[in-house]
Amino acid sequence: MTAGMKAGMKAGLTIGLPPAAAPAIRPPADWRAPYQGQAALVVLTGALVFNAALCFLNTAGLPVSGGTVMGAEVAIIAVTLGFALDERPGPWLVLAGLVTYGLLLVTLRGNTDVKGIRDFLIPVVFYSLGRRSLALRDADRAVLASGVIVVAMGLFEYGLFDIYQQYFNIVRYYVARGSMSASEISELTGSLFTSGIRPDSRTILPFLGPHRVSSVFLEPVSAGNFGAVLFAWALYRRTMRGRAWLFLCAALTIILADARFGAYVCVAIAGAMLVGYRLPRLLWFALPFTILLALAIYGFESIQVSWQNDISGRLLWAALLITSLPPEGVWGIMADKVFLSDSGYAYTLTQVGIAGALAAWGLFVLMPARNPDGWRLRCAMAIYLCLLLVISDSPYSIKTAALVWFMLGAADGAEPEA
Fold it and tell me: Is 197 helix (H, G, I), strand (E, B) or coil?
């Protein structure tokens, strides 16, 4: 056989190869992959501490404003977007749909308040960032690092308070950013936020005194909420290295903030994660709307008009705020801005409307997860959100929401553990 015949036969065999034997075409490598864990840690830390950093600058004589705070949030969300979204169409479609709906509400309201759009962006962006985590160990490090930062800052505030207030004048910062008026400054709290001093006795370890530690959050309510978030991750991650330390961080954060509500939420989270996750998803979908309906009935039926700063009083005030909304407020197209921070359900209705709330919560409850065990954490965070919305709009604050949604994304996207 001549060399020409051999070459011809070789070429013919090559041409006749089945498609499966052809060399595979690899997709281009994602340049972000080597930096994914570090990027997540950076943006989560930024979301956690940027308010404290701006407070420090304002106290040092570099004035900040509401625009400064908004610009910082936009920058954090923009960087997160760069590491959160990829070629998967799902997050893009969800983001486009929610932003379009938010712009429609802004147009119908006839004002320029785009806070509702930001409220949509934070869950989608940070959840998608969590889904891209390479392993749950990366999320473990991010959550534990956040807990250590919060506790370290809290101990500094509590143990060296005279030095702390020289660098962090919280009241001046909130006045500068437009969240408080000068008339709200109280001699009782001094440089702290209005809830930074407990006027009556502490509930948790009374010997610690009336000072409620705010840590990097600058106000103690968010600190207590964050303690419950840390507790949820520690309870969920049975094989986490440093799990005991995370439990300790959660406990210290709640104790230092004298966060009664945060302690109650921890109990509810434990119940949801240990037992409640077995309930059908339809019941979880109905939970916040059942609470909303119950509050509305309470508000319409109650003859009380005065309330005290305890659990029953906060429930009454939340019910009164909900029932005070006009129909356009329920649909999210009310032009006038009113103070609704003490009722997260009322705030939700005015910002995204009942239709938007139904769609967003349905997406949260019904979306599938690669890791079935992630449903347990999702139930725990569902309880956290539903209870917290009764008395506050803080679930929408990036200070705590960034880590919540990152955790949920990491848990849903992780490979099931053996």
Answer: strand
pLDDT of residue 18: 43
Find how far residue 9's CA is from the centre of its chain.
Answer: 65
Counted residue by residue, the chain has a size of: 418
Q: With 0.85 as the threshold, say if the pTM is over it.
A: yes
- Going by C-alpha positions, the residue among 322, 323, 335 that lies closest to residue 393 is 322
Q: 180-222: per-residue pLDDT in tens?
A: 777 667 666 678 888 888 877 788 999 999 999 999 999 999 9
Task: Report the Cα 84 to chain-centroid distance in Å.
Answer: 16
Alpha carbon distance 381, 225 (integer Å) = 11
Residues near 12 by Cβ (< 8 Å), separated by ≥ 6?
none
CA nearest to 250, candidates 232, 264, 274, 275: 232
SS3 259: coil
What would the DSSP string read from start to end of 308-365? -SSHHHHHHHHHHHHHT--HHHHTT---S----TT-HHHHHHHHHHHHHHHHHHHHHH
